[in-house]
Amino acid sequence: MSQESKIAPLSALALLLIMASSPHASAQTGAPQIVFQSATVGQGGIFVMDADGSNQLRLVTGIGDALAPVWSRDGCRIVFRRGNHNAGEGFIRTSIYVMNADGSNQRLLVGDVDAGLEEDLRSYFAPDGARIVFVSQSNDIMVINSDGSGVRKLTDGLYAFQPSWSPDGSKILFGSAGRPPRIRVANADGAGLQDIGSGTDAQWSPDGSRITFVSAERGHSDIAVMSSDGRHVRVLTGSSGYARLPSWSPDGSRIAFQTMRQDDVLLEVMDADGTRRTTLADHLLFEMSGAMAPSWSPNGSEVAFTRMPFPLSEITAQALSFDIYAVGADGSNLRRLTTTGMALHPTWSPTPRCQSGP
Question: Could you give all domains of the chain from N- to C-terminal order, each with its CATH number?
Answer without folding.
Answer: 3-356 (2.120.10.30)
